[in-house]
């Protein structure tokens, strides 16, 4: 299924029957969602653990395309679709997607201007790793695991490197990559030297410490 169709499927129950009335100009919720995803793609930032996308979007729209009344559930649903797209692409987000829609009289009819930024915020747990030294929650996509106190998952054990491995998800599932660690990473007992697939229940070993990863 194409990305555009996937977005439309997610929104169709919400907008069916009143989208034409809510957005009296050419702007449609699916079109707005697609535009936000394109803006996120254009604003991608390269980090040492992979691409990071903005999560804050301020959209200014010319008067003729601004809805008379926006249902309370519409903007959160669009934000959720943008979040899911980022997840499916394997992009890291620092917080939940936030969307503000503003009317701007200085813009022409139907014009749209979008600005993006990054803002840290609470994220839901999407997986855990469980081992003898504790259970750790995975919240960020592209999560850095290591001994460094600034790692997303901080495991202060000498057999881990400061930046040991990266765990992420995309439309293909869950994955892990060793981050040039000194003692290596294994998946189900097999050493890895390139990105490897994970599934819920896989045993991941950092150095000599083993953890079971579980989807939430």
Brief digest:
This protein is of the alpha+beta class and 216 residues long.
Structural features, described:
There is one protein chain. The protein has 216 residues and is α+β, with helices and mostly antiparallel strands. The chain is 22% helix and 33% strand. The protein has helices spanning 3-15, 19-22, 29-42, 74-89; strands at residues 45-47, 50-52, 56-61, 98-103, 112-117, 127-131, 134-138, 143-146, 153-154, 165-170, 173-178, 185-187, 190-191, 196-198, 203-206, 209-215. It has a 6-stranded antiparallel β-sheet with strand order 7-6-16-15-12-13, with no helix packed on it. A 5-stranded mixed β-sheet has the order 9-8-10-11-14. Helix 1 packs antiparallel against helix 3, helix 1 (3-15) packs antiparallel against helix 4 and helix 3 (29-42) packs across helix 4 (74-89). The relative contact order is 0.13. Residues 17-21 have low confidence and may be disordered.
Task: Please write out the topology.
Blueprint: H1 3-15, H2 19-22, H3 29-42, E1 45-47, E2 50-52, E3 56-61, H4 74-89, E4 98-103, E5 112-117, E6 127-131, E7 134-138, E8 143-146, E9 153-154, E10 165-170, E11 173-178, E12 185-187, E13 190-191, E14 196-198, E15 203-206, E16 209-215
Parallel strand pairs: 3-4, 8-9
Antiparallel strand pairs: 1-2, 3-5, 6-7, 6-16, 8-10, 10-11, 11-14, 12-13, 12-15, 15-16
Helix pairs in contact: 1-3, 1-4, 3-4
């Amino acid at each position: 299924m194409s990305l555009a169709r996937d977005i439309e499927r997610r929104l169709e129950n919400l907008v069916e029957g009143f989208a034409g009335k809510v957005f009296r100009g050419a702007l449609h919720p699916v079109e707005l969602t697609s535009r936000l995803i394109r803006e996120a793609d254009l604003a991608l930032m390269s980090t040492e653990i992979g691409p990071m996308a903005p999560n804050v979007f301020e959209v200014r729209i010319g008067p003729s395309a601004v809805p008379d009344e926006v249902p309370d559930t519409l903007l959160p649903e669009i934000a959720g679709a943008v979040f899911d797209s980022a997840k499916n692409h394997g992009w890291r987000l620092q917080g939940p997607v936030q969307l503000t829609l503003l009317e701007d009289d200085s813009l022409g009819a139907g014009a749209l201007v979008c600005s993006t930024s990054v803002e840290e915020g609470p994220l839901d747990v999407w997986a855990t790793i469980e081992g003898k030294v504790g259970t750790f929650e995975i919240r960020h996509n592209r999560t850095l695991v290591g001994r460094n106190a600034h790692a997303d998952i901080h495991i202060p054990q000498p057999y881990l490197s400061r930046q040991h491995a990266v765990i992420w998800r995309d439309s293909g599932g869950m994955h892990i990559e060793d981050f040039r660690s000194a003692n290596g990473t294994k998946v189900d007992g097999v050493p890895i030297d390139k990105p490897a697939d994970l599934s819920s229940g896989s045993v991941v070993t950092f150095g000599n410490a083993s953890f079971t990863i579980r989807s939430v």
